[in-house]
Every structure is written in C-alpha cells, then in structure tokens.
Amino acid sequence: MVRGAQASAAAVLAVMLLGACSSGRVPEPGTSSGQRPEARGPTRSRQPASAPVPSRSVWCRSGEALGRLASRPPSDKTDVVVGPLRWSGLKSWQDGRRTDFGGRTGGGWHYKIGAEIERGSVVTVSVAPEARHRAGLGYGQKEGFTPAAEVTFSACTDSDTVYVGGFFVAGDGRFCLPLDVRVGKAAPRRIVIPVFSGGCPT
After folding, report:
1. Beta strands in 90-149 (DSSP E)
2. Order of strands, sheet of 135-137, starting from the edge strand that comes earlier in the sequence
3. Helix (H) or strand (E) segment spanning residue 2
4. Is residue 31 within 8 Å of 41, Cβ to Cβ?
5. Which strands form 189-195's sheet, in the order they lie side by side?
C-alpha cells in the first residue's frame, strides 16, 4: 500500500511541478526555489504543535505552494475524501512507515501530503480542540508551513487545486488525529486519521 501511495504522491508532485501558478515549480515546505529539496534536512517548524496559530486561509495566489490539476484521477481506496477535499493515499498511513512520508522536526514529526480541492470549492479543516496540544496543520507557504489549528482552503476558480503541506504531530509522530471538516457553510463532519498508529477507534 505504501508503494501505491508513493506512486500517487509522485504523480501529484509531477502535476504540481508543471502547474504551479507562481514560479513554474512548487518547492517543498521550507525549501527555497534555488535549492534542491534533497540537499536539506527535514523541515523545522517555527512553532511547536502545542502552540499552533488559531487559523489561517490559503488560496489561489502568487507565492502560495500549489498546483493546478488539469484533470483529477478517480479516487483510490486508500484516499481520504470528504466532499470536494481529497488526501490521496492517506489511509495507507495506518500501517505505513513514518520515514516514507516525513521526518523528525521541531519536537515531533512533520508529514507531507497535498490537500486536493475541487475547483471553486471552499473547505475548512480543523484539528479537534482536544488534540491541538499534539497536532497541527502545516499548510500555507507564506506562513512557513508552521502548524495551525485550522486551515481554510479555497481552490482556484478555473481548476482543481492541490496545496503543498501536511500534518505536524508532536512526540513520536503516532496519533489518532481527529479532524472536523466543513464544506462551505455546512455543518462540520468529524473524521479520524490513523497517523501511523495501526488503527483508531471509530
């Protein structure tokens, strides 16, 4: 399952490199456009997960780390999908290896995964209040991908959009991560992500 998730991630990255709206390429979190990502160590978060900023918005603008998707492939059984939001291959993290998706940084682990949003959609993702001492959402290049308790994603109006970023989990990086996902102004939906935890209560 990890190989499938890595293949999906590679495909998304290829699209992102071709479709980024700012400089023609999408740097990895914490990587400037003039540096090779493999020449740097794991991204160091500027804030610990125990003190995430309350909220932020990311949208289709110059300087944001995003890619435009010319076409969106069908969902896979390893994807996490909530309405217009999709994290490709995220279910495979349940029994996957942490080092395949991230590294130790800033008192915990920073995992990389793109958030895909259907064109014209607005989706707000919040870490459940009881989990904010352990985890944060690392999206938003202009804010240095520092952990946030809540992120509102606004897709480009003319294309499906994938935002570079991921999750920060304090400690050993294993956690049942509860998230509240709200599409537009609808009521939020609670989901639980098994972040390399081997399974979570439902």
Report:
1. 102-105, 108-112, 115-117, 122-127, 135-137
2. 102-105, 108-112, 166-170, 135-137
3. helix 2-19
4. no
5. 56-58, 150-154, 122-127, 175-183, 189-195
Maximum Cα–Cα distance across the chain: 44
DSSP label at residue 52? -
Q: What is the pLDDT along the chain (202 residues), one digit of tens a residue?
A: 434 444 444 443 333 333 433 333 333 333 333 332 322 333 444 444 445 678 999 999 989 999 999 888 889 999 999 999 999 999 999 999 999 999 998 799 999 999 999 999 999 999 999 999 999 999 999 899 999 999 999 999 999 999 999 999 999 999 999 999 999 999 999 999 999 998 887 6
Give me the half-sphere count of Cα atoms (radius 13 Å) on the Cβ side of residue 149: 12
**Residue with token string 């400089």:** 23
Hey, CA dihedral for 26, 83, 179, 58, is it positive or negative? positive
Tokens coding 60: 């289709």
Q: What SS3 state is found at 83?
A: coil
Q: pTM value?
A: 0.74
